[in-house]
Amino acid sequence: MLQLDEVSAWYGQARALDAVTLTVETGQTHALVGANGAGKSTLLRLLCGLVPVYTGTITLNGKPYDPRKASADGVALVPEGRLLFDSLTVEENVILGARDRAGPWSLTALYALFPILSEKRHARPSDLSGGQQQMVAIARALATNPAVLLCDEIALGLAPAVVGDVYVALARVRAQGMTVLLVDQDIARACRVSTHVTCLLKGRVSHQAPAAGVTAQSLRAAYFGVA
Ligand code: ATP
């Protein structure tokens, strides 16, 4: 279980997260939604040590969690915009994430999850389609054999059919018992694959509930801050 208590973060003088309390249960998928600028990416980046924790505490499976040791502690990020290295091949990008940790996500397993990446393993990321690049980013994160996978807008800019492929792959990852914290602008899609949903508004938690039954309409006030 990943537990955040009263976590705050700042960019200089601007508060990006304000006393965020959030529980992501082991083996479950938790959706993080909210308008542009609500703080979703900041929260994921904070969990990987890319944004410092200003106040608050975080525990992972009951032990204090230091985001600066995210990779060693089994927390991996699929970043918004993918951030692949084009000077490396597809395969080199993927194994960049590999760690000396036992787990199901060997290179063979990753190629079984994304067969197209096996075919393209010697290509450069820029020679791949957007969907294939997203698969590389997901594979790179999985190669660390994480306990918790953080996914930031993995559908962004992809054609609907390709989004379907990416989410089918994510379902297979979730079926292996992965704990997932997922940012998606599409509330319906995020809630379909999640057990719980947290909505952020201006860096604060504005709504938290089981995902079943949550709709864009029911989240309107929490999302936009209007009744
Ligand atoms: P989006 O859907 O647009 O990605 P988000 O919910 O992920 O939005 P964040 O990107 O976390 O929101 O941004 C939260 C707030 O922090 C916003 O007000 C944003 O302008 C600000 N912010 C984000 N990154 C930085 C940065 N590097 N420096 C300064 N302010 C930042």
TrEMBL record:
SMART domains with a match to the protein in the record: AAA
Family according to the record: Belongs to the ABC transporter superfamily.
Source organism per UniProt: Pararhodobacter zhoushanensis
InterPro entries: AAA+_ATPase, ABC_transporter-like_ATP-bd, ABC_transporter-like_CS, BCAA_Transport_ATP-bd_LivF, P-loop_NTPase
UniProt keyword list: Amino-acid transport, ATP-binding, Nucleotide-binding, Transport
Record protein name field: ABC transporter ATP-binding protein
Pfam families, per database record: ABC_tran
Domain ABC transporter positions: 2-227
Superkingdom of origin organism: Bacteria
CDD domains with a match to the protein in the record: ABC_TM1139_LivF_branched
One MF term in the entry's GO annotations: ATP binding
PANTHER family: HIGH-AFFINITY BRANCHED-CHAIN AMINO ACID TRANSPORT ATP-BINDING PROTEIN, HIGH-AFFINITY BRANCHED-CHAIN AMINO ACID TRANSPORT ATP-BINDING PROTEIN LIVF
Matching Gene3D superfamilies: P-loop containing nucleotide triphosphate hydrolases
